[in-house]
Amino acid sequence: MTNVHNFNSGPSILPREVYEEASNAILNFNNTGLSILEIGHRTPLFEAVLHEAIALVKELMQLNDSYEVLFLHGGASTQFFQVPMNLLDASATAAYLDCGTWGSKAIREAKHFGQVHLLGSSKDKNYTYIPRGWRVPDHAAYCHITSNNTIEGTQQHEWPETDVPLVSDMSSDILSRQLDFNRFGLIYAGAQKNIGAAGVNLVVVQRDLLGRVERHIPTMLDYRQHIANNSMLNTPPVFAVYVCMLTLRWLKKLGGIAAIEPVNQAKAALLYDTLDRLPLFTPTVAREDRSLMNVVWVMEEPALEAEFLALCKAEGMVGIRGHRSVGGFRASLYNALPMSSVEALVQLMEHFAAKRG
Questions:
Q1: Which helix (H) or strand (E) segment is 146 a member of?
Q2: Which residues does 165 contact at the CB level (< 8 Å), separation at least 6?
Q3: What per-residue confidence (pLDDT) applies to 1?
Q4: Distance from C-alpha of 37 to C-alpha of 41, rounded to nearest angstrom
Q5: Which end is more exposed in the chain, N or C (fewer Cβ atoms within 10 Å of the end residue's Cβ)?
Q6: Which of 243, 196, 187, 209 is nearest to 61 (CA)?
Q7: Alpha helix (H) ranges present in the chain?
């Protein structure tokens, strides 16, 4: 495994110590003789895991006492409809920014529950930039923004000054950079990119935003029910929550978000500098909107793409192929990816450019 460089976009790389400890727990969890896969979810064994995971989220995000932290079933796509179901009345309007595939899908789901005001869209240029010059309407129930667009490689670097509750899908950059998380009314993220394994969804929500809609909300989709039952309204994804706890514990040991952010900036800077320097490779995203998590590029000579991909495969570069909807290449630089992997990719690109450029 030391010869593999994992640039997958999700499920993605985990810290080595996390999957080693998780592997041991599959055989014998905390010396109980039981596997983590078979412990009861309503026993003190798992309750301790869940409580620690929730406490770590609150600590790492420096949340005030008005927030609840939930670990729920389903990926972030579930939240595309669960958010408006809980926050948007049929006669009300929510404001959405359309900056990519996932934001577009969130808009489509929200329209089933209320009105949608489109703040702006970058669809005209294949979502290669973040729109500017828009304003959040004062009457909006909430403002929804995707913080990082995994497929297209853009990232929100500016947030609106507004009294309207901010809602953000942070699936692909959660806990990767310092933000004032207390500015947000609701944050959600699929765990499988930066905070754990696939199978669980993190939701951070201000309590006073809930209970305002008039519609009936099915029990399993009502955030208040999950809060009242401490994320155990039904059997939670025990193993996925456990891996989240281990990953959060790893991040805290490193020094938290303040420690990992400069590392992420350095990784992205090295790769972008290389792409800007080598004419054979062309970044597709507006420079001011480039993502620190998902770096996307194409080749000046498309005929060379297959050869470069084959070389990446031979050198243990996994997950370099771009998303099927946009093509080209993508390298995901999540928290757990070491700088050595980025350095190896850069060296490979320089070698290929010298040979074919």
A1: strand 143-146
A2: 87, 141, 142, 143, 184, 185, 186, 206, 209
A3: 47
A4: 10
A5: N
A6: 187
A7: 16-27, 44-61, 76-87, 101-110, 223-228, 238-254, 257-277, 305-314, 339-356
Strand partners, 143: 95, 166
Domains, the chain: 16-254 (3.40.640.10), 256-356 (3.90.1150.10)
Shortest CA distance to 252 belongs to which of 62, 20, 66, 70? 62
CB atoms within 10 A of CB 79: 27
For 82-115, write each residue's pLDDT tens digit.
Answer: 999 999 999 999 999 999 999 999 999 999 999 9
Which amino acid, 251? L
The Cα–Cα gap between 89 and 83 comes to 11
Strands 329-332 and 317-318: unpaired
Distance (Å, whole) CA 153 – CA 302 = 19
Token pair 């995000």 in the structure block, residue: 61
List, for residues 109-154, the tens digit of each pLDDT value. 999 999 999 999 999 999 999 999 999 999 999 999 999 999 999 9
Residue in this structure with the two tokens 């900056």, named with its chain if needed: 99
Residues 6+ apart with CB under 8 A from 247: 14, 15, 18, 195, 196, 336
How does 141-163 read in b/e, with b if 16+ C-beta sit within 10 Å?
bbbbbbbbbbbbbbbbeeebeee
Task: Answer yes or no: are the C-beta atoms of 30 and 262 closer than 8 Å.
Answer: no
| Residues 292, 333 contacting (CB under 8 angstroms) | yes
Q: Which residues are catalytic?
A: 102, 169, 193
Record the pTM. 0.97
Tens of pLDDT along 245-286? 999 999 999 999 999 999 999 999 999 999 999 999 999 999
